[in-house]
Write a structure and sequence with these properties.
Elements (H helix, E strand, L loop, with lengths): L3 E4 L1 H5 L8 H12 L3 E5 L8 H6 L8 E4 L4 E4 L5 E4 L4 H14 L2 E6 L2 E4 L4 H10 L3 E3 L13 E5 L2 H7 L5 H6 E7 L2 E6 L4 H12 L6 E5 L5 H6 L2 E4 L5 H6 L2 E2 L7 H9 L2
Parallel strand pairs: 1-2, 1-12, 2-3, 7-8, 12-13, 13-14
Antiparallel strand pairs: 3-4, 4-5, 6-7, 6-9, 9-11, 10-11
Helix pairs in contact: 2-11
Length: about 270
Amino acid sequence: MYKLMAVDLDGTLLDEEKKISERCRENVRRLKEMGKKFVLATGRPMRGILPYIETLDLSDENDYVVIYNGALVLNTKGDKILYNQPVSLDSYKELYELSKRFGVNIHALANEKVLTPKYNPYTEIESAFNHIPIIEGPVDEVDPSTNIIKVMFVDEPEKLDSVIPLLPGWVKEKYSILRSAPIFLEFLDKNVNKGVGVSIIANELGIKPEEVICIGDAGNDIAMIKYAGLGVAMGNATEEVKAAADYVTAANTEDGVAKVIEKFML
């Protein structure tokens, strides 16, 4: 019997208007009544998911979220941290030098803000999605006390496609590298991914991997899909994600998450 479901947000739980369907909200309500857990697992910061926590009423003491793609795992009240694994300001600096070599835009996520050396439309998208301010300024002038959680190359999909094969070996050894969206390539601590994040929550709640369902659509969801007893890809997922999954549901515009809840958990 499945006891916990971890779900990605963008392209998975959310439709194209960034909304959760009434059908899905009702299914989550029923899960809560049954004592089962529903976990949001996202690359977003906390501020970017607060409206969805409220919509789904995930505000109990033992409701948890995976944010920043697993760099931070905590309860939804924000007063109990299970895992916190940022990178460093030095990481931002060295990846900035690499971004200049490749000619791609870059930004870094700090606590509830996004830092960038150059204002660009991709950082603007990050800011708008997550309701966080953009702080533009030279990388070498960032306050040394700044907590850098993750660094991202942000640019046109074709440009990022061309950059990935050119990443030096030391970068691949040092960082967990995730494609969270066509325009976002993320660099996190080597021990960070959504699979680690979900496993930490499951362990905290005494739930086994085989009792977990994980659902996603993009490359940053593969680790949790492989971790879960039932790994599910959305109908709109990339082929790589579908290949990693045990089951493929409908697209995010066709209530794919709601259908998985009804088929496997209710």
